[in-house]
Amino acid sequence: MLDQVVLARLHLEAVLPNLEIMATDDELSRPIAGKWNGSILFKAGLQGPSSTLTFSNSKVTLKPGRPLRPDVTLFFPTEKLMNNMFTGSGVGFPLVLKGFTKLKGLITFMKLAKRMEKVMKGPNPPMSLKAKLTINTIPRGLAILLNYDKAMEEQRSHMPEGVAEFRIKDGFAAHVVYKNGHAHADAGHAKDPDFIMEFSSDKTALDVADDKVDVMASICLGDISMKGNLHMGDVLNGYLDRLSLYLQ
C-alpha cells in the first residue's frame, strides 16, 4: 500500500522541480514561465508537506517549505486531495487561501504543468528533454523514500552511506547523498560518487524507466553501466522498484 503523505512529498519535491528544467530547456515553456512573476505555495494538510514555486523573469525555482509572504496559497485539506490533482484522478481541488484574484499566476502554473505532462506522457515527446526530466526525478524520489517511506525501513537498514549518481552518457546527471541516516538529492555530477548508474543514451534511459527493456539484458549489452559500490546499487534497485510504483 502506498503512503499518501510520501506520495505528496514525491509530487512536491521530486516532480515539481522539473518545472525548473522546463522553463529553461523547453522552447514552448519559456514564454509561459515569463508571463508572471510571483510565488505559489502548495500546502497539504495542517501538518503535511509544503513547497513553493517561484516565477521570476522567465525562471522557475522550487523550494520545500513556505516563504514569508507567498502571492498564492493552494491548500489541500489532505495529502490524498493533493495527489488526486497531480495524478488527475478523483477529486483534487485545492482551497485558494490567498491570491484568489491573481488568476494569472494560477494559469501560468497550470499551463506549465500541462506542458510537462505532455512531455512526460504524450506521444512523440522531445526525447532529450524527457530523459533529462526522468534522470532529475530519480535521485529526488529516492531521497524522499529513504527519508520517509516506513515500508522500506528494512531495506534502508542495508543502505551504505555515500553518493549515488545517475547519468546519461555525455549528458545530464543527478545524484543522491545518504549520510547519517538522511538523504538529499541535487542535479549535476557528484564530486566523488560511490556508485554510478550510466545509461548509454536518452532512449535507453527512457526505455528502462518505461519498463520496455530488460535491465539485465541491457547491462549485458552495455546499454547500462554500473560502477563502484554495487551493494549500494543493489539496495537502491529495490528503491527504484518502489519509486516506480508511486509514480507509475
User: What is the overall number of helices?
Assistant: 10
The strand count comes to: 10
Query: How do the helices and strands follow one another from N- to C-terminus?
Result: HHHEEEEHEHHHEEEEHHEH
How would a textbook summarize the main sheet?
Answer: 5 strands, mixed
What's a quick, concise take on this entry?
The protein has helices spanning 4-15, 18-25, 30-33, 79-87, 103-121, 127-148, 153-156, 202-209, 215-221, 230-246; strands spanning 38-44, 50-56, 59-64, 72-76, 95-98, 162-168, 173-179, 182-187, 195-199, 224-228. With 248 residues, it is α+β, with helices and mostly antiparallel strands. Helix 2 packs antiparallel against helix 6.
Describe the fold and architecture.
There is one protein chain. The chain is globular, with a radius of gyration of 18 Å. A hairpin with a 2-residue loop joins strand 7 and strand 8. It contains ten helices and ten strands. It is an alpha+beta fold. The chain is 44% helix and 24% strand. The strands form two sheets. Strands 3-2-1-4-5 form a five-stranded mixed sheet. Strands 8-7-6-9-10 form a five-stranded mixed sheet. It has helices at 4-15, 18-25, 30-33, 79-87, 103-121, 127-148, 153-156, 202-209, 215-221, 230-246, and strands at residues 38-44, 50-56, 59-64, 72-76, 95-98, 162-168, 173-179, 182-187, 195-199, 224-228.
